[in-house]
């Protein structure tokens, strides 16, 4: 594997007693779409700002292509940034906004104009070159901000919640466009968001932060299927949590018991072969049936219709509230509030957590 294009080593940022970053270590590969994901106050924007050079670290280092850039000012780093609020110059036309980084870098007139045309075409905004920012919609302004950031062909593109101000449908459309643009250009993207769906759909790798520290990192599917902690399991998607006891171990994995029922877990390195264990169970992995069809019996408390899916909250005497998610199309059982139902899941559906 090639050396990382960017490395963060033991990064610490404190504000008085508050520790915004807590000894963060991170490598970013060239051409990667890396997403920093976490709730408000988790440290993701602070980390992005430290990489950009806008925030000075209290301790630790940032390296780019093997060189220490920790004290290098932002304008000396070959990075570009797209902000949540677009940050377009209101008195400049679209073309002038896109060309601004090139003028600063002393591009010649003809080279600048050609590059501006190319960047506007790249984001499908060539016909808007002479308009002012206030004449554009939010989605169009975001495209211009992206074109401006890409104009000088940066090594790394930093994106700080760039779609958060857009409505849901436009946001979904631009997610596809951003992913396609990344694949076409091959530029390294470091993307900050608190939106789990956005992170899952766009990223090559996700880094989940909490309280200034990395909780877990990996490919979207690996993180979703194998969360290490309760926080990760509940932040990246939704999970039910079940307390169980390990009662046996065989070739197929661990046998556990919960609420009087035994079932098998897929093996997981680092898990104790005996004693109590906390399990994460995704709502979409649970089957609903008429009473007696599945292992557990409960009563429907609440139903939320979400179009393609229906979420059903079931009360169980021992397990408590259990959230079930099932497709609405050709659903085997159509639950109603206060209906008695049974529920269960297949082998390997539950994931044992390594930390609570």
TrEMBL record:
GO MF terms held by the record: ATP binding
Record domain ABC transporter: where: 6-236
Annotated keywords: ATP-binding, Nucleotide-binding, Transport
Domain of life assignment: Bacteria
ATP-binding among keywords: yes
Xref: Pfam families: ABC_tran, TOBE_2
Listed InterPro entries: AAA+_ATPase, ABC_SmlMolc_Importer, ABC_transporter-like_ATP-bd, ABC_transporter-like_CS, Mo/tungstate-bd_C_term_dom, NA-bd_OB-fold, P-loop_NTPase, Transp-assoc_OB_typ2
SUPFAM superfamilies named among the record's database cross-references: MOP-like, P-loop containing nucleoside triphosphate hydrolases
Keyword Transport part of the UniProt annotation: yes
SMART domains (UniProt xref): AAA
Protein name: ABC transporter ATP-binding protein
Provenance organism: Pseudodonghicola flavimaris
């Amino acid at each position: 594997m090639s050396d990382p294009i960017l490395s963060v080593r033991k990064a610490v940022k404190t504000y008085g007693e508050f520790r915004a970053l807590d000894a963060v270590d991170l490598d970013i590969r060239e051409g990667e779409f890396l997403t920093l994901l976490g709730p408000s106050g988790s440290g993701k924007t602070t980390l992005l700002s430290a990489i950009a050079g806008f925030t000075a670290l209290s301790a630790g280092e940032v390296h780019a292509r093997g060189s220490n850039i920790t004290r290098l000012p932002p304008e000396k780093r070959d990075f570009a940034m797209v902000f949540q609020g677009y940050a377009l110059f209101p008195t400049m036309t679209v073309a002038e906004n896109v060309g601004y980084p090139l003028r600063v870098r002393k591009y010649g007139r003809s080279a600048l104009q050609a590059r501006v045309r190319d960047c506007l075409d790249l984001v499908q905004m060539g016909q808007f070159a002479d308009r002012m920012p206030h004449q554009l919609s939010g989605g169009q302004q975001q495209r211009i901000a992206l074109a401006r950031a890409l104009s000088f062909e940066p090594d790394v593109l930093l994106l700080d919640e760039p779609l958060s101000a857009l409505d849901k449908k436009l946001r979904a459309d631009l997610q596809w466009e951003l992913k396609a643009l990344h694949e076409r250009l091959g530029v390294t993207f470091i993307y900050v968001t608190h939106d789990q769906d956005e992170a899952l759909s766009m990223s090559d790798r996700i880094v989940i932060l909490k309280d200034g520290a990395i909780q877990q990192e990996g490919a979207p599917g690996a993180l979703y299927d194998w969360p290490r902690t309760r926080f990760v399991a509940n932040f990246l998607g939704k999970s039910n949590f079940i307390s169980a006891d390990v009662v046996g171990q065989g070739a197929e994995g661990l046998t556990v018991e919960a609420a009087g029922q035994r079932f098998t877990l897929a093996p997981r390195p680092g898990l104790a072969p005996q004693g109590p264990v906390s399990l994460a169970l995704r709502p979409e992995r649970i089957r609903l049936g008429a009473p007696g069809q599945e292992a557990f019996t409960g009563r429907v408390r609440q139903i939320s219709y979400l179009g393609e899916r229906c979420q059903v909250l079931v009360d169980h005497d021992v397990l408590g509230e259990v959230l079930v998610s099932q497709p609405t199309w050709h659903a085997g059982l159509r639950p109603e509030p206060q209906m008695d139902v049974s529920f269960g899941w297949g082998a390997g559906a539950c994931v044992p957590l390594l930390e609570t």
